[in-house]
């Protein structure tokens, strides 16, 4: 194994799996051939991007679908906002019941001109306290994952589907997602990234508007919005902390995401 690869694996705490898993090269095995899952376009102001791979349909959520497949229309007050306006709108948002118990909203963080946009589920207690998504041990692992593929945290933009903390880490309800997703949609439009990396089942299902299991969402290129932004799905770092043996699959997902992003750049 060359030094760079060893460094990347160590950053993701994968070195144990190299020792146990046989030949070192086996950990970076070829990923599944890219396929594309198409979701209904959302109104967006971002530029057109081409889809070049095979089209694959995914099953829509039962109504009311909270995400893109539902043809969600951003409220007018969100659709045209710039960063300053959007941040203020989120800070004062009372569109769902989560506003009642929050101490502050968690808007998003990072480079607003980033090429990669990371989408998570919702803030937890630590995130709410600090006002920033993906902090603590979960944040550290996400940082290591991003570092391992050459996109360190300061170079990406990170946001959640929900901007307020659900009580007891409950999954977001369809109504909460329906009310809050326009905020994320506008963030995506403003960043206009090359690639959206969805971490975790809840984020992926709600962004894409599907109820497909995460295992079936991995290894495919999904498309978001009228601009057909590429979306790749992987595990949530919190899950990887609970199930470290799955880090190897996450590493494969990240390599796949890199290939997608690089292919997109070559195609433009
Ligand atoms: S979760 Fe989203 S929609 Fe609900 S109050 Fe917070 S910012 Fe508004």
Key attributes of the depicted protein:
alpha/beta; 11 helices; 39% helix; 8 strands; binds iron/sulfur cluster
Walk me through this protein's architecture.
With about 270 residues, this protein is of the alpha/beta class. The chain has eleven helices and eight strands. It has helices at about 5-10, 15-20, 75-80, 85-90, 125-130, 135-150, 175-190, 200-210, 215, 235-240, 245-265, and strands at about 35-40, 55, 110, 115-120, 155-160, 195-200, 220-225, 230-235. An eight-stranded mixed sheet has the order 2-1-7-8-6-4-5-3, sandwiched between helices. The longest helix has 21 residues, at about 245-265. The protein starts with a helix and ends with a helix. The structure holds iron/sulfur cluster. Iron/sulfur cluster (SF4) binds near residues 93, 95, 98 and 179.
Mean pLDDT level: 80
With strands numbered from the N-terminus, the spatial order across the biggest sheet is: 2-1-7-8-6-4-5-3
Q: Architecture in CATH? A: 3-Layer(aba) Sandwich
Q: Total helix count?
A: 11
| Rg, Cα atoms, Å | 18 Å
Predict the CATH topology.
Uracil-DNA Glycosylase, subunit E
């Amino acid at each position: 194994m060359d030094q760079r690869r060893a460094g990347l694996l160590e950053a993701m705490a994968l070195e144990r799996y190299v020792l146990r898993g046989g030949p070192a090269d086996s950990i970076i095995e070829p990923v599944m051939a890219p396929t594309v899952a198409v979701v209904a376009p959302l109104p967006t102001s971002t530029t057109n991007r081409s889809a070049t791979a095979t089209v694959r349909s995914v099953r829509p959520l039962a109504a009311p679908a909270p995400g893109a497949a539902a043809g969600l229309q951003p409220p007018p007050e969100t659709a045209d906002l710039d960063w300053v306006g959007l941040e203020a709108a989120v800070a004062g948002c009372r569109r769902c019941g989560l506003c009642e118990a929050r101490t502050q909203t968690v808007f998003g963080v990072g480079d607003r001109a980033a090429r990669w946009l990371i989408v998570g589920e919702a803030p937890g207690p630590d995130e709410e306290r600090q006002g920033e998504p993906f902090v603590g041990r979960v944040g550290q692992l996400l940082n290591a994952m991003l570092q391992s593929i050459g996109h360190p945290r300061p170079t990406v933009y990170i946001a959640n589907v929900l901007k307020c903390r659900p009580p007891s880490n409950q999954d977001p309800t369809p109504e909460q997602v329906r009310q809050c997703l326009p905020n994320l949609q506008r963030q995506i439009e403003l960043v206009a990234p090359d690639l959206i990396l969805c971490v975790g089942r809840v984020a992926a299902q709600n962004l894409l508007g599907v109820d497909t299991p995460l295992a079936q969402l991995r290894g495919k290129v999904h498309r978001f919005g009228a601009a057909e932004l590429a979306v790749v799905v992987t595990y949530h770092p919190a899950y990887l902390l609970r199930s470290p043996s799955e880090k190897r699959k996450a590493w494969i997902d990240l390599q796949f995401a890199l290939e997608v992003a690089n292919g997109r750049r070559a195609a433009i």
